[in-house]
Design a protein that fits this description.
2 domains; 164 residues; 0% strand; mainly alpha; 5 helices
């Protein structure tokens, strides 16, 4: 769970960096987009934390790239100049290599329910661990409280024996 969160956070940070570079220079550097594509394909093919299966990742990368490539080619046919930079196509290919092609619409409820079940299972596991670690402490505290109560009840009775 932690590794999955770290990987997603790292991907988001790289995308924020690319957005910042693109905003400042209107360029997306190949030295970032190419490794991002390769890492997405590697990640989904060879790790247990994959976001999608390898075929969906490869199709996502190819369709992501060629969709913008074709839009640029059509624009170039009519206007005799590029309509968009190919860095955008490489970035979409990188996103496709990480997320795959299977981004379904209308599955928000299913996704949220699945996330709810995962978090609920994680919470119950953590509560069970907390319960196991606090149980001996609670028994000790209750024992001391009951022992103190018994001492306060029986000490006056024992001191009566000395008086008589």
């Amino acid at each position: 769970m932690l590794i999955d969160t770290l990987l997603r956070s790292g991907l988001i940070l790289v995308l924020i960096y690319l957005a910042w570079v693109d905003l400042r220079t209107f360029l997306l550097p190949n030295k970032v987009t190419y490794p991002l594509i390769a890492l997405g394909l590697f990640f989904n093919a060879l790790t247990p934390y994959a976001f999608c299966d390898p075929h969906a990742a490869l199709l996502g990368a190819l369709i992501g790239y060629f969709a913008l490539y074709l839009i640029n080619r059509i624009y170039r046919q009519f206007r005799r100049q590029d309509g968009l930079g190919m860095g955008d196509a490489k970035l979409l290919a990188a996103l496709g290599s990480w997320l795959g092609i299977g981004a379904k619409t209308g599955t928000l409820a299913e996704m949220l329910h699945s996330r709810h079940q995962t978090l609920e299972c994680d919470l119950s596991h953590r509560l069970a661990i907390l319960n196991q670690s606090l149980e001996p402490i609670l028994i000790l505290v209750l024992g001391l409280m009951i022992g103190g109560l018994l001492m306060t009840l029986y000490l006056p009775i024992f001191s009566l024996g000395k008086i008589i």
